[in-house]
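re: ur question from yesterday

yeah so i grabbed the chain u mentioned. its 204 aa long if i counted rite. heres the sequnce exactly as i have it in my notes:
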Amino acid sequence: MSKPRTKSELKRNQILDAATLRFTQHGYAATSMEHIAKLAGVSKQTVYSHFGNKDELFITSITYKCELSGIAELLPENLGPVESTLTLFAQRFFTMITSPDSMAVHRICASECLAHPHLSRLFFEAGPVFVTDKLAACLAEYHRRGELDIEDCRQAAIQLLAIIKGEQWIRLEFNIGESLSEEEIKHYLQSSVRLFIRGYQTLS
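ran it thru and got these structure tokens back, copy pasting raw so excuse formatting
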């Protein structure tokens, strides 16, 4: 049974929900701590008591959104068979990165990367780097078991993540109306994982 959240934790999540909504709808530059406080229904001082500045609140809201999306559970601690585990990971990761919130955050960082380059760095470390490192650790375990033959697990992780994004993510990035069907996406992810495994399978 999970431990009940304290009033402070509930207030913190309330602020994070408001911050995520404000950042994704209006962008970083057009969002102030006062805007977020008003949307969260708290005082500006309460926001500052939980988060020291806007940068800290921005990156924490991204991390918070990643946690809600199940980013920490993309791969299990006890790894099963290679193909089924990586296929499940591919499906979960794809669902996460193509969600409206994820696409909104991506567009914010991309559009404001010149004016606020530190935002892109914060996002990169909180999202892509976290996922890459977690996947690389899992691939290293498969290598240790002798199920995959990978010399550079981080590079292999980057390759798999890039393959997973595929055409549908590009369509969303450029706001192309036509979408691939669920069956097309499922087939693409399965075939991509099989291609990856064939490239790194252990040669007997």
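noticed a couple things. The chain has two domains: 7-59, 69-200. also The mean pLDDT is 88.
anyway ttyl
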